[in-house]
Amino acid sequence: MKIAVLGTGEVGRRIATRLVEVGHEVSLGSRTADNAAATQWAEETGDGASHGTFRDAAEGAAVVFNCTKGEHTMAVLEAAGAASLDGKVLIDVANPLDFSNGFPPSLTVSNTDSLAERIQRAYPNTKVVKALNTMSNPVMVNPRMLAGTHHTFLSGDHEDAKSTVRGLLESFGWASEEIVDLGGLATARGTEAFLLLWVRLYGAVGTGEFNIGIVKKAG
Amino acid sequence: MKIAVLGTGEVGRRIATRLVEVGHEVSLGSRTADNAAATQWAEETGDGASHGTFRDAAEGAAVVFNCTKGEHTMAVLEAAGAASLDGKVLIDVANPLDFSNGFPPSLTVSNTDSLAERIQRAYPNTKVVKALNTMSNPVMVNPRMLAGTHHTFLSGDHEDAKSTVRGLLESFGWASEEIVDLGGLATARGTEAFLLLWVRLYGAVGTGEFNIGIVKKAG
């Protein structure tokens, strides 16, 4: 599958690399066509890896990962252009973190709205699925690094798009029963708000290499 | 220990019963001295159980559990009175849920503040500890009902008060390593915001009888 990854930070590069590993053609999108991090990533990754502007990457892709920082997301999608996103699955990994008062961050949108819903409202012909935003990027792409069962969440209004994302997550190593469909895209209010707990857990656990698992009754 | 439980709903009665079971003298506080639920609870529970007004209950106690609905918390504490709460440990189990638009609820305070911090600001001589607010009440008092390791969180600015709460949680059956101290009371912003995810997990899991566990790397 041709997949665009928007954002050349650690999250974007980690996801892009993993997508190439599992057999996809990946274009890493950035503000400029000659972005140093994207150029280096494509050279080092080799077959299946390319790079370009946000628009270049999104235009040729069937699926688009939003791995930008939440504060830049709307501007990046505008740069990619509605036409490039039309009819496509957009996997929103971003969180609307506000570090303007330092660590821990607060959220710029929360409680009664979410970044994912904002994207969906701005791009009604795109199929937005919120996913993977509740953990650090090493865990996203290699869930088996952790010792035990843990969970990842899907939020979205388009069932076919959620199926596509589920397939990609399984290719990363997520067990089917570890992928929890929370329902419509408004449930992203829950996973984005979880970041307010995640950043404190990060402090208490002492590493970002953890995740949460749902523990049920015996039997 | 003499403990007050403010709130005669399911959470309050469940915690009050468990506290009596593990050997404490518990007074269940309500708006009026002759509250039917509190009277019935004290009669059925027997030795160690009493009831009274919010003020009656708090006055005689060393530790106070706030098990009221978040929307009533500040009024209930005002009815209990600052003098009755002075110098005491207040365990805040409440969440500032807003059901005015139906289910799932939003929060009336979140992101850059929390109900726990509001209580602490209003009662600076009380030692507020946020605890147990991230799960349903059967799990709070009987953590071993779930199949595996899962976690509960402490937030508070007073170390001695957190030690007291830790001891109570261990008496409920929480393992020491399952009780995660997140730090100061502002970390309650994280556990209260988790409710926005919890209410959606409740829908996806199909029962409230679950909790989250932190899953780390092997080794």
Give the helices and strands, then pairings:
Two copies of one chain form a homodimer.
Chain A (H helix, E strand, L loop, with lengths): L1 E5 L3 H12 L3 E6 L5 H10 L3 E5 H6 L3 E4 L6 H8 L1 H4 L3 E4 L4 E2 L7 E2 L7 H8 L4 E5 L5 H5 L10 E5 L2 H14 L6 E5 L4 H18 L4 E7 L3
Parallel strand pairs in A: 1-2, 1-4, 2-3, 4-5, 5-8, 9-10
Antiparallel strand pairs in A: 6-7, 8-9
The tally of strands of chain A reads: 11
Element string of chain A (H = helix, E = strand): EHEHEHEHHEEEHEHEHEHE
Poorly predicted runs of chain A: none
- Give the termini distance of chain A in whole angstroms: 40 Å
Largest interface, C-beta closer than 8 angstroms, per-chain residues: A-B, 43 and 43 residues
Q: Largest sheet of chain A, order of strands side by side?
A: 3-2-1-4-5-8-9-10
The number of helices of chain A is 9
Provide the structure class of chain A.
alpha/beta
Overall number of domains of chain A: 1
The largest sheet of chain A, given as strand count, sense and whether it forms a barrel, is:
8 strands, mixed
- What is the CATH class designation of chain A? Alpha Beta
Task: Report the sheet-strand fraction of chain A.
Answer: 15-25%
Cα shape of chain A: globular
CATH topology of chain A: Rossmann fold
Assembly status = homodimer
CATH architecture title of chain A: 3-Layer(aba) Sandwich
Overall pLDDT of chain A:
97
